[in-house]
Amino acid sequence: MAAVVALAVLLGGGGFAAWKLDWFSGNGEAVTFGKNPPPAAAKPDAGGASAGATPSGDPDVLMPTGPKSDFKQTTKLDDGTIIAKTRVTGAKSGFEGDVWVWAPKEYDDPKYAKSGFPVLIALPGGNGFPANYWSDRSLGLQKAIGEGVGAGTSLPFIVIMPVLNPDAKYYYDGSDIPGQAKMGTWIAEDVPAFTKANFRTYKSRDGWAFMGSSSGAFVGMKTVLQHPDKFKAVIASGGEIVPDSPLWKGHQAEMDANNPEKLAQKLIDTKGPEVYINFQVGTKESGKDRMVKFQQQYGKGPVKTTIRDIQNGEHNGWHYVRGMKEGSLEWISKVLKAPKPEAG
Fold first, then answer.
1. What is the pLDDT of residues 56-99, one digit of tens each?
2. DSSP-based three-state secondary structure for 159
């Protein structure tokens, strides 16, 4: 956990070497996703799919439902794709927080104008506030996906990166702790609703997954087990297994309802639906014993678990992205639904 907190401080302080000025070209400008021509040439008030686009062939495709959000560029990748930020007020949680987004270049390809795209909700560790460190290009998450698409080892995921906690004082376990901000509803309900409002997605859980590191890995895994009707898979890197926020004191029943061990057992008892958990752990960090124990006790029936060792890996985002490049992206891409281009 400490390593991820340090990483967040480093990235938040802007101490990394940003020697390519093009990274910052256009930062702060309005961005539109899902419109041809590409975002840089689109009108700021345009959004959603191309005018008149309707899903064809696949009833699972969900076109943007609106209302459209106002996105501002925060950085640009070498392939021209954009990471952008917006402010979201959760209709169900009442929580207001920042969300960063990234869409692969295929999203603006006319061949995919009527196709849905799989969504990867990326959760940070540490404080998870006021930023989500997966939105920093130096970690290489978006680049890894883009390169994976080119190599045929990754689907072109839309990456959604919300804040994880409402402040930097406590950790809220991505849950609705009584008397606190409803962060469980924020992650499981409001963030997906925002995504559906602005992007071409899928109605079924086959297009929805999480990835996260440390405390964010816990939240991703917990949310998949808690809502298997909405989410199908998670890449959980260096994660915790059980809830541990001090804010649970006096609320044992509610804490149990957010415990992955108990949620997994419930899913086993009810015989599904199937969910897929891919643990990642560096060989230079602790915690693998907890993953192995979880796999031995709960990795059965509908709960499908794998453990990926990252050789010489430590507890940080750079090494977790390396693990994704080495196999976890391909793993989750086989589990989720791919976009379908139109013929021609």
1. 679 999 999 999 999 999 999 999 999 999 999 999 999 999 99
2. strand
How far is Cα 216 from Cα 159, in angstroms, rounded to an integer? 15
Average pLDDT over residues 99-113: 96
What average pLDDT does the structure give for the chain?
90
Instruction: Report which secondary-structure segment, H or E, holds 80.
Output: none
Name the nearest CA neighbour of 83 among 5, 160, 167, 4: 160
Nearest to 176 by CA among 195, 190, 162: 190
Name the band, by pLDDT with cuts 50, 70 and 90, for residue 198: very high
- Residue 21 CB neighbours (<10 A): 7
Strands 303-310 and 233-237: unpaired
Residue found by looking up tokens 């501002």 in the block: 72
| Closest residue by Cα to residue 210 from 240, 230, 183, 182 | 230
What distance in Å separates the CA atoms of residue 238 and residue 249, rounded to the nearest whole number? Answer: 25
Q: Report residue 102: phi and psi, to 5°.
A: -145, 135
pTM of the model: 0.89
d(CA 103, CA 107): 6
